[in-house]
Design a protein that fits this description.
Elements (H helix, E strand, L loop, with lengths): L12 H10 L4 E5 L5 E5 H17 L7 E5 L4 H11 L4 E4 L6 H11 L3 E4 L4 H7 L8 E4 L15 E2 H6 L15 E6 L9 E5 H12 L11 E4 L11 H8 L2 E4 L6 H10 L4 E4 L1 H14 L8 E4 L6 H11 L2 E7 L6 E4 L4 H4 L3 H8 L10 E5 L14 E6 L21 E9 L5 E6 L4 E3 L2 E3 L1 H8 L5 E11 L3 E10 L7 H8 L11 E4 L13 H7 L9
Helix pairs in contact: 1-2, 1-8, 2-3, 7-8, 9-10
The chain binds adenosine-5'-diphosphate.
Length: 541
């Protein structure tokens, strides 16, 4: 027997409809790419998104067509997302930090028909446009006054383009399982893989993301997504913020410490989210200027592990609660958030920080297990590491144009991460399965060592890789970038780590470098580091 409730498909554009009706006046403020601060609200965003939809429809963009965006977090970019998905086409965010060849590969693979592009990226696109085979038209996200001369095919300024529509248009309706968005994983090994979100998965994921023990956003919040719209579906913020009716502050092209601080302070931001590198820059800025964060209540740190010293500084020096989070493009992307269950709620100081080093517990809608290489489940004792596998309505079941089976017999997806689960259901990433250091048959977590090393006051950034060892297969090498004008010796760094980890985890050597390579999403590029140190000889004991 079927239930007798209404059929109300979970379509993403219903989110902007709701925001426009219930929270229509709520400010959406952007630091525009052209420079000045721009202010709009959800009602206007919806009206203009309808114009985008109407205009795309007139240009012949149809259900299932892919439309690329190469753009910063701005109100126009947000309008594009809703306009594209509102006719059943697919917003495809392209990460501008990728190499031009990778951008071409991704756009061609997705067969994007149009591209919305920010002024910042015109020069690079013009140079590479011949490689973008399927794009029929470029819409430059600016107005007529700022529109430069460009060689891009059928280029038009966004404001002129939508001015040809009057918003007298209705969203299309279709099945909630229709594809809505697309994002390629960075593909640090092999070609990037396309993850295809559906309307249903995005809406369910936005509910999950907004829960009190997830991001806990409310209409009274002011949300600054530092994480770009092009990074892993913007951690749901393009959906969960309007869904809850919170105000939105968008940083545009300027993600440096002083620019982010200015927005946090001026607009009384209460909630923000981004990767550790951004927060490192913000903390340095605060330390330099003596700035404070009186309005900011919560900060979600994810994408890479949040170093202990970072969490501690935000909480103790600035009174900002850190929510450590983990996820991946394939998971829409949220997998777990480290908020406090009653079992841990009374903890303070170092004991609380110990828990906050964990990536947290999954919300309803994400199931987790850890297994050994043969697929056998491992105990949740907080110590045993295993392959982390996940299942849920916002987790990928296949990649775009790729028939490979990516789920196990029970329908779980192997995340490629290695993790422990504790008795209260908190997960802690110990490594990527490719990065874990295998020493004498035992595993050493590179992340734990990195977190510890960056706690040293002179260390700006640390990476640990396994290098070949005649007896132990692999041993850890600690690679360090010192803070500006600092000097430190290997012994000084190792002495700092001594006693805080098992003896056999101690790095065999320390290499000081000027810079550590990063991926397009700010993660340490371990493949390149391993390549650089492949002939490294560890000191013989
Ligand atoms: P990209 O490389 O494009 O950023 P993803 O966002 O999908 O791709 O990366 C997901 C991976 O990032 C995870 O599988 C995990 O290895 C790593 N990661 C994400 N959050 C954390 C975290 N809080 N701690 C440690 N690793 C993390």
């Amino acid at each position: 027997m079927l239930g007798l409730m209404q059929d109300w498909p979970l379509l993403c554009h219903r989110i902007i409809d709701h925001a426009a009706i219930q929270h229509g006046e709520r400010p959406v403020v952007t630091r525009s790419v052209e420079g000045p601060i721009h202010t709009t609200n959800y009602a206007q965003i919806r009206t203009r998104a309808l114009k985008v939809a109407q205009r795309l429809d007139r240009d012949g963009i149809k259900l299932g067509d892919r439309v690329a965006t190469l753009a910063w977090n701005t109100w126009r970019h947000l309008e594009c997302w809703y306009g594209i998905l509102g006719i059943g086409a697919i917003y495809h965010t392209v990460n501008p930090r990728l190499f031009p060849e990778q951008i071409c590969w991704i756009v061609n693979h997705a067969e994007d028909r149009m591209m919305f592009v920010d002024l910042t990226f015109l020069p690079i696109l013009e140079k590479n446009a011949h490689g973008l085979k399927t794009i029929e038209r470029y819409v430059v996200l600016t107005d007529a006054a700022h529109m430069p001369k460009t060689t891009l095919k059928n280029a038009v300024s966004y404001e002129e383009w939508i001015a040809e529509a009057d918003s007298d248009f209705a969203w299309k309706s279709f099945d909630e399982n229709t594809a809505a968005g697309m994002c390629y994983t960075s593909g640090t090994t092999g070609n990037p893989k396309g993850v295809l979100y559906s309307h249903r998965s995005n809406v369910l994921h936005a509910f999950m993301a907004s829960l009190p023990d997830a991001k806990g956003i409310a209409a009274r919040d002011v949300v600054l997504p530092v994480v770009p719209l092009f990074h892993a579906n913007c951690w749901s913020l393009a959906f969960s913020t309007p869904l809850t009716g919170a105000s939105l502050i968008l940083p545009g092209a300027r993600l440096d410490g002083p620019s982010i601080y200015e927005l946090l302070d001026k607009y009384k931001v209460t909630f923000t989210a981004g990767v550790p590198t951004v927060w490192l820059a913000l903390l340095q800025e605060l330390e330099k200027t003596g700035g404070k964060l009186p309005y900011l209540k919560r900060i979600v740190i994810g994408g890479s592990a949040s170093p202990r010293a970072m969490t501690q500084k935000f909480q103790d020096n600035y009174g900002v609660e850190v929510i450590h989070a983990w996820g991946m493009t394939e998971m829409s992307p949220l997998g777990s958030l480290c908020t406090m269950k009653p079992e841990y709620a009374a903890l303070t100081g170092e004991a609380k920080l110990d828990i906050q080093m964990k990536q947290g517990h999954p919300p309803f809608g994400v199931e987790m297990k850890i297994t050994d290489d043969s697929g056998k489940p491992l105990p949740w004792d907080g110590k045993t590491f295993g392959r982390l596998k996940v299942r849920g309505p916002a987790v990928a079941r296949r990649y775009f144009k790729d028939d490979s089976e990516i789920l196990d017999k029970e329908g779980f997806f192997d995340t490629g991460d290695v993790a422990t689960m504790d008795p209260h259901g908190y997960m802690q990433i110990t490594d990527r399965s490719k990065d874990v250091i295998k020493s004498g048959g035992e595993w050493i977590s590179s992340i734990d060592l990195e977190n510890l090393a960056v706690g040293h006051p002179k260390v700006a950034e640390a990476a640990v890789i396994g290098v070949q060892h005649p007896k132990w297969d692999e041993r850890p090498l600690l690679v360090i970038v010192l803070k500006k004008d600092q000097k430190a010796s290997k012994d000084e760094i190792l002495a700092f780590m001594q006693g805080k980890i098992a003896k056999w985890w101690m790095p065999d050597d320390v290499a000081f470098v000027e810079e550590i390579p990063h991926t397009a999403t700010g993660k340490i590029l371990k493949t390149e580091l391993r390549e650089r140190f492949k002939d490294y000889r560890l000191p013989v004991q």
